[in-house]
Amino acid sequence: MKSLLFSRFLLLLPWVLIVIIVLDIDSSRAPLPALSPRGGAEGGSGGARPPAPRRRPEAALPTIYAITPTYSRPVQKAELTRLANTFRQVSRLHWILVEDAAARSELVTRFVAGAGLPCTHLHVPTPRRYKRPGLPRATEQRNAGLAWLRQRHQHLPPPQPGVLFFADDDNTYSLELFQEMRTTRKVSVWPVGLVGGRRYERPVVENGKVVGWYTGWRADRPFAIDMAGFAVSLQVILSHPKAVFKRRGSQPGMQESDFLKQITTVEELEPKANNCTKVLVWHTRTEKVNLANEPKYHLDTINIEV
Ligand code: UGA
Ligand code: MN
């Protein structure tokens, strides 16, 4: 009985193999579906199979430029490590890291070299007179990032699909956020968690348009939104070459509004994150570290970068 089964199996085996090989050749010869021009008319001959969806080539994805101001403090490397671990998982992301310093620091230079993602390392110091509590932070650094971006694209031929986003070094970013902002046409907005003295702030959306702001802090702001709550297309940045963050007359919490009103209107904003109903970024703040037991003079036998 066993030998009968075995001989049947041997008899069938070559045929099964032939069928597999023929199927394989057939599928590798199948013509690739023609790429229809974007926005071009589809279909035509009735009954024809629609072209199989092709994966969008990576090169066509708009680049996300993330401008991150950063300054030296005990938690700096920890913050940058967390941020790089997020950014490394985002395709076509270019990190513009701007140090608040008179020169590039060794720590950040080394960090950038090993970060494992495209990175531009800039630096500009905040003038001493602006380093005071109650004054806006990182104005000069964000402007340096904007200047670099504009200069870089001056000499590149259009179109240059890109999206700019201000990514402070201490916030928490979900990967979904980058999918959302990638499709920004002009200026897009979304909710931000743990900000403004509330669990979240968000643009209020009606019929796909921003009509107001859910916020617990200074609701009179023209754009009641945190720095982490919007993205701008590169085209808008390039077509408004004078749009920058201003020191003169600026008040805390007004930087976002002052910047946005130079480039857009509330009516024009594109709501993301399911009509601004999902929190995909959190305005987390790292607590100041306790270094009470740190010796005044170097006591260890080795030097460690922390
Ligand atoms: C809030 C907003 O979320 C910030 O976008 C805004 O810049 C800031 O207020 C402000 O007051 O201007 P907050 O958490 O209070 O943020 O500010 P930080 O996270 O301390 O600073 C924002 C960014 O500027 C960070 O990336 C930080 O590394 C950088 N920074 C801060 C400097 O480059 N230099 C500084 O002296 C302080
Ligand atoms: Mn912060």
UniProtKB/TrEMBL annotation:
GO terms for biological process: carbohydrate metabolic process; chondroitin sulfate proteoglycan biosynthetic process. It is found in: Endomembrane system; Golgi apparatus membrane. It is an enzyme of class 2 (transferase). Residues 34-56 are annotated as: Disordered. Residues 1-30 form the signal peptide. It is a single-pass type II membrane protein. It comes from the Eukaryota. GO terms for cellular component: Golgi membrane. Glycans are attached at residue 275. One of its GO terms (molecular function) is galactosylgalactosylxylosylprotein 3-beta-glucuronosyltransferase activity. Its main location: membrane. Pathway: Protein modification; protein glycosylation. Its EC number is 2.4.1.135. The record marks 201, 293 as: Interaction with galactose moiety of substrate glycoprotein. Mn(2+) binds at residue 170. The active site is at residue 256. The keyword Transmembrane applies. InterPro entries: Glyco_trans_43, Nucleotide-diphossugar_trans. It catalyses: 3-O-(beta-D-galactosyl-(1->3)-beta-D-galactosyl-(1->4)-beta-D-xylosyl)-L-seryl-[protein] + UDP-alpha-D-glucuronate = 3-O-(beta-D-GlcA-(1->3)-beta-D-Gal-(1->3)-beta-D-Gal-(1->4)-beta-D-Xyl)-L-seryl-[protein] + UDP + H(+). UDP-alpha-D-glucuronate binds at residues 69-71, 100, 137, 142, 168-170, 283-285. Keywords: Glycoprotein, Golgi apparatus, Manganese, Membrane, Metal-binding, Signal, Signal-anchor, Transferase, Transmembrane, Transmembrane helix. Its cofactor is Mn(2+). Belongs to the glycosyltransferase 43 family. This is Galactosylgalactosylxylosylprotein 3-beta-glucuronosyltransferase. The gene is B3GAT2.
